[in-house]
Amino acid sequence: xxxxxxxxxxxxxxxxxxxxxxxxxxxxxxxxxxxxxxxxxxxxxxxxxxxxxxxxxxxxxxxxxxxxxxxxxxxxxxxxxxxxxxxxxxxxxxxxxxxxxxxxxxxxxxxxxxxxxxxxxxxxxxxxxxxxxxxxxxxxxxxxxxxxxxxxxxxxxxxxxxxxxxxxxxxxxxxxxxxxxxxxxxxxxxxxxxxxxxxxxxxxxxxxxxxxxxxxxxxxxxxxxxxxxxxxxxxx
Amino acid sequence: xxxxxxxxxxxxxxxxxxxxxxxxxxxxxxxxxxxxxxxxxxxxxxxxxxxxxxxxxxxxxxxxxxxxxxxxxxxxxxxxxxxxxxxxxxxxxxxxxxxxxxxxxxxxxxxxxxxxxxxxxxxxxxxxxxxxxxxxxxxxxxxxxxxxxxxxxxxxxxxxxxxxxxxxxxxxxxxxxxxxxxxxxxxxxxxxxxxxxxxxxxxxxxxxxxxxxxxxxxxxxxxxxxxxxxxxxxxxxxxxxxxxxxxxxxxxxxxxxxxxxxxxxxxxxxxxxxxxxxxxxxxxxxxxxxxxxxxxxxxxxxxxxxxxxxxxxxxxxxxxxxxxxxxxxxxxxxxxxxxxxxxxxxxxxxxxxxxxxxxxxxxxxxxxxxxxxxxxxxxxxxxxxxxxxxxxxxxxxxxxxxxxxxxxxxxxxxxxxxxxxxxxxxxxxxxxxxxxxxxxxxxxxxxxxxxxxxxxxxxxxxxxxxxxxxxxxxxxxxxxxxxxxxxxxxxxxxxxxxxxxxxxxxxxxxxxxxxxxxxxxxxxxxxxxxxxxxxxxxxxxxxxxxxxxxxxxxxxxxxxxxxxxxxxxxxxxxxxxxxxxxxxxxxxxx
Amino acid sequence: xxxxxxxxxxxxxxxxxxxxxxxxxxxxxxxxxxxxxxxxxxxxxxxxxxxxxxxxxxxxxxxxxxxxxxxxxxxxxxxxxxxxxxxxxxxxxxxxxxxxxxxxxxxxxxxxxxx
Lengths: 236, 590, 115
Fold this sequence. Notes:
The complex is a heterotrimer of chains A (236), B (590) and C (115).
Chain A: E1 4-10, E2 20-26, H1 35-45, E3 64-67, E4 70-73, H2 79-82, E5 87-91, E6 98-100, E7 103-104, H3 107-115, H4 135-139, H5 158-162, H6 169-180, H7 188-193, H8 209-213, H9 220-235
Parallel strand pairs in A: 1-5
Antiparallel strand pairs in A: 1-2, 3-4, 3-5, 6-7
Helix pairs in contact in A: 3-6, 6-9
Chain B: E1 6-14, H1 18-30, E2 34-38, E3 54-55, H2 67-77, H3 84-104, E4 118-125, E5 133-138, H4 144-158, E6 162-165, E7 167-174, E8 180-187, E9 193-203, H5 224-231, E10 236-237, E11 242-249, H6 259-262, E12 266-268, H7 276-279, H8 289-301, E13 313-316, H9 321-328, H10 330-339, E14 349-358, E15 362-363, E16 369-373, E17 379-387, E18 392-393, H11 405-427, H12 436-451, H13 458-472, E19 476-477, H14 479-497, H15 510-534, E20 543-544, H16 552-555, E21 557-562, E22 567-572
Parallel strand pairs in B: 1-2, 1-9, 2-6, 9-17, 15-18, 19-20
Antiparallel strand pairs in B: 3-5, 4-5, 7-8, 8-9, 10-21, 11-14, 12-13, 13-14, 16-17, 21-22
Chain C: H1 12-39, H2 45-51, H3 55-83, H4 87-113
Helix pairs in contact in C: 1-3, 3-4
């Protein structure tokens, strides 16, 4: 059984002046492993290999990385989906500073998430039971609330690469729309006022890389379109 | 050591899952100087994987629903060693805690009248078991844990909670009086080790399912808080009680929610027979999880398992139709396609009982205060130490947790701990500062790894530990096998104590974190093993071939494991709820 | 909100709207021109100059020129803010662009109304 040829992005700030690619031969015993399993096997060869992981079932969003050129979650990406010609190249998510190996500094990504005030705002006194919401109103949150903050989308977005400080990015905007669309949220005007500048929303050029890579099958581009519609309706 | 930086807080919460974030929210709102210290970014905590829902008598599905019925189910589900005062507190305070979550924005699914959607779950009944199946589990599709965890994180952002994300708590710091006054923690990104001082230290580190080879738990569930508390000499309660979830995906171990059976799915053996009708004629597939898991293993052992090796059974869902699956169980459809290569709308999912939940943990009262025993066997509060969530044993789950009760446990007791600590801080609790030798003794373990020069490596030792637990302490247990397991663990402990960490670098050294986690797995495994060997009866999730019956005369008790002399003691179960009559132990059938 | 002072409308929404409206005007103008050229096989100077003698044609053309200027400015401003990170260089390039657009616009107007 020939071994899988795995090329890994390596960088340890304490010992390396520059990042480099390191080759590993990983024995998969012919099984269609997940990419994360391959990383575990590589780590047994080199204890120092660093990557994040937690739930290993695609709901925690820890192990977003670039696999043979495409962003995704290592734990739910089977080799059969990404490997071509027995070769697998793993790099950190593009566009964010690398801390070590496949671990990136997600600070900018989280900052943009926090900027859209990702929490329900409703200043009316809460009832003694839950706030009522019809199933139709609740349906509007489907495809939005499921985001796991893995950053696969934002780090695949050229607009986010060029302006990570000013463009909210697909993940943040998806969450922004999650609250704009919630019948229980009363801060719509304030939320929209924060978004009408030329960068926050409008730097989206409809490239749709975000849609192509989202491991949860969500559609940030559509949410961004909805925000634009709301801004337009609000201002005209 | 003198150069070590220190940080001071009123309260430090170790763990950023549901319980930790709920406690933190309460404290952040009160303006106390609080920090959440989490080894992963909080939304990566294992709460995120909870699927089916949060069980609570909010009376949406049934306007006559009553929290007392929920309490009855909880006590019965726990095979009568759930504390009745704690269960009473959880079930009666529950609706308040769930409505708060909704007000915070949790996107619950809805009934047509706009109220929160509730689905049937295992072990639920109306009218104290006499009124048939109840539907009491509040759900956000099959992603309730995800929705809950994100909502709590979001509201902590709103209230400016301080987060020490990707920090790893190494060990507790005790002062000369034995009070807990903080911890030693490592900033994973830089490797810096810091002394975190605090008047209240809350352990909310979740479970430790990774002591087993096959588990639904996240890779991070290594029992760090349990390990720290055991090393600090505090006792653990009911550690033999491990829930095996009936439906882990065969081979992968990933969870398939009980909600599948709540929505009408059922288990079949190789003959296509709905075998739960034989084991639990009334509740069938919605009997307690321990009952269903045991029945599945019986089917497999008696040769009616599915697949080439006959080592699993099937969960049938196709009769629910694509619409129900898409609306109520979309995450399950995704998971089974990814991990079982099965579309549940067409074919059944291969499942097998898989380690899922630790009922035991740090004994606490309903305020989250950790409890130990004095020499006479009386309860004694541990100064400065609190626990909530899966790491704690209040105990509301007894010998077997009901589905949907874990999320309720997190928010009710996270909230309760937060409220209590706020009050205690207002009253001005003060403890003696830790001396430098107190701090040094908490540094011992990390120093040992950092100075290790040769020995066995972490991955192989971990695999061996998991193999021992899987082999000797699974769904069915018996003396000989467990004695052997305890011996192998004892020997493993020595090898781990001289194991080797090859990578000593500082920046994001995950190898060091995994080494420190291995020590905690070892502590949890040993506590589990000794408690399982000593509890000579079958109760709830703890089933022994050699003691097949429940023994109320001797074991209607919590077990209490003392790490110093590896001894198993007993502690009384509470049978004194405040507002209702207590539930007498009865034979448990479904 | 991200603040900025060099974009056209001071608001992403108005820039976005302007970009789309100007694109529609330019598309109509282009269609008209292509159609005119196809339907006028023996086109000579007199006919061409005659077309632009009509006031409506001059207004239509002016609208197209202004649209082109706005469209170009918004588009190129975006490009400079994406790719030119040093502030000095970015402002210099933006000045050159705006100067060029201004010159072309005035030149266009003199062509239309001059002579």
